[in-house]
Write a structure and sequence with these properties.
This protein is an alpha+beta fold. It is about 45% helix and about 15% strand.
Length: about 350
């Protein structure tokens, strides 16, 4: 074992035969994987836990269910220790996971980068013994009667490792290079080593999971923000300079530059608050439009409380920053000149 954690996996689907009256058999999306999957990807459990490495070795008939599948099959009760019938075989339930839907579906991008989470998890070795159906891509470099047999010239299994340091990552990369060289010498691989060991973010970037139009929308939004800030500076500067007479009189009556500056800055902040409230309304309208786009990721667009607070704070802070120069120019008005001219 060369990694802190490692998991082999593939997607699949299987027919579940409910024991609950009134429910017909139905298919569920599954993940056939190994024991480290749950700890590696920080899968949250509502009850029980994952299986062990020993279960992987002995092809244990165990399974982990999603909360939704457990409730559908048994209702809102503790199901750990009960059995579920999958493709004619009894599997013992060892854990139930909370609602868990990584977006994007980074650990398997073959079917859908924004797929809903799997409902059934079974040890990879057990899935092969039970001949559970698999889904995903398969690449073969030679003819073979059974592409999923051990030693077949095909690749279809996803492999993930967790490496705790850059040194471990480099050592693992060297291991992969040596393995590829050995396979080349044995005649199984036909090309020189071309090893890629990417982390999650590099992998998403390589697979171009985030559409280019999303980045373009972000750039356009930042451009609009910059234009609005420049316009706000100009409008506030005009507004405050038009009040030169009022400011001059107040200065002559004893008001300090500091008090004038703070008052003008407060006015800028109030404009930001009003603008922020209007902006939140426009944001909800824009969110509604995005969620109605015919794209896979449209339903994932949302505004949670921290994002709303950050948006409102950005509006207020931006208006205060935009008001700094106009407020400073406004408080520089010379009282004598204003009183003399009026």
């Amino acid at each position: 074992r060369r990694a802190d954690r490692q998991a082999m996996m593939t997607g699949g689907n299987a027919a579940v035969e409910p024991q609950r009256a009134g429910l017909d058999p139905f298919f569920v999306e599954g993940r056939w994987t190994s024991a480290d999957f749950f700890a590696m990807f920080r899968v949250p459990f509502a009850a029980g836990g994952g299986w062990t490495a020993e279960d992987d070795t002995r092809n244990a008939r165990v399974a982990v269910l999603s909360r939704a599948l457990a409730d559908k099959l048994f209702g809102a009760v503790d199901v750990v220790g009960r059995s579920i019938r999958v493709e004619g075989s009894e599997l013992r339930i060892v854990g139930v996971i909370e609602t868990w839907r990584p977006s994007p579906h980074f650990y398997d991008l073959n079917n859908d980068a924004y797929a809903k989470g799997e409902q059934l998890f079974v040890p990879f070795s057990t899935s092969r013994e039970l001949k559970l159906a698999r889904s995903g891509t398969m690449n073969c470099w030679d003819e073979t009667p059974d592409p999923i047999a051990v030693g077949a010239p095909c690749v279809w299994i996803q492999l993930w490792v967790e490496l705790g340091s850059a040194e471990k990552a480099e050592a693992y990369r060297d291991f992969l290079v040596r393995y590829s060289e050995d396979q080349l010498r044995a005649g199984r691989f036909q090309r020189p080593p071309n090893v890629r060991l990417r982390d999650v973010m590099a992998w998403l970037d390589y697979r171009k999971v985030v559409p280019s139009d999303v980045r373009l929308q972000s750039i356009v939004a930042l451009g609009f923000l910059l234009v609005c800030l420049i316009n706000t500076v100009g409008l506030l500067l005009t507004k405050f300079l038009r009040r030169s007479t009022e400011i001059g009189v107040r200065r002559a009556l004893g008001a300090s530059k500091r008090s004038i500056f703070l008052q003008l800055l407060v006015e800028s902040g109030l404009i930001g608050i009003v603008g922020g409230l209007l902006g939140l309304g426009l944001a909800w309208l824009g969110l509604w439009a995005v969620r109605h786009q015919p794209t896979d990721y449209a339903e994932l667009a949302r505004l949670d409380l921290p994002m709303l607070a950050a948006t409102f704070a950005l509006a207020v802070v931006s208006s205060l920053l935009a008001g700094l120069l106009p407020a400073w120019r406004g408080c520089q008005v010379a009282p004598a000149i204003q009183l003399k001219s009026h």
